[in-house]
Structures are given as C-alpha cells and as structure tokens.
C-alpha cells in the first residue's frame, strides 16, 4: 500500500526530507504523498521513514491503494532505474 498523510498533519516538515523517493511534498493545507512514488521505503529501508519521524503519527497506510511487497519492489525498481 502507499502511505497517506491525514489532516492531523501539523506541517512540521520532518517527513519530506526523509522520503528516498521524493514522494512527499507540501500540499495546499498539509503535506501530501504521491502514491505513484511511494514504496513504503521498500528497497531502501526496512520501515517507512516518514512514519518513523512523524511526531503526530498521521501517516497510515492508504486503504484505497493496496499493494503487495512485490508490487512495491517493482515500483522501487522503476523509480530508481532512471
């Protein structure tokens, strides 16, 4: 699954630089995650780094974007092949 940022986000800016794929960016009101770039850090780390640093725990799995570990790994290979 891709991750998502909920409206509990306090715009602290700690998650954006932690994303190895550049999937996190400022949105109109809160930070957002581009699901086409989010691999939950598969291929880079054992755990999603944005979740590790978020002080308000507002980055859950997006239930509308279910992906297997294999799909996330394939997405990682596509993103990093450039």
TrEMBL record:
- Which UniProt keyword terms apply here? 4Fe-4S, Electron transport, Iron, Iron-sulfur, Metal-binding, Repeat, Transport
Q: Which PROSITE patterns match?
A: 4FE4S_FER_1 (PS00198), 4FE4S_FER_2 (PS51379)
> What molecular function terms (GO) are annotated for this protein?
4 iron, 4 sulfur cluster binding; metal ion binding
Positions of the 4Fe-4S ferredoxin-type domain: 1-29, 31-64
Q: Which GO terms describe its cellular component?
A: cytoplasm
Query: Per its UniProt record, what PANTHER family does this chain match?
Result: PHOTOSYSTEM I IRON-SULFUR CENTER, PHOTOSYSTEM I IRON-SULFUR CENTER-RELATED
Which protein, by its recorded name, is this?
Ferredoxin
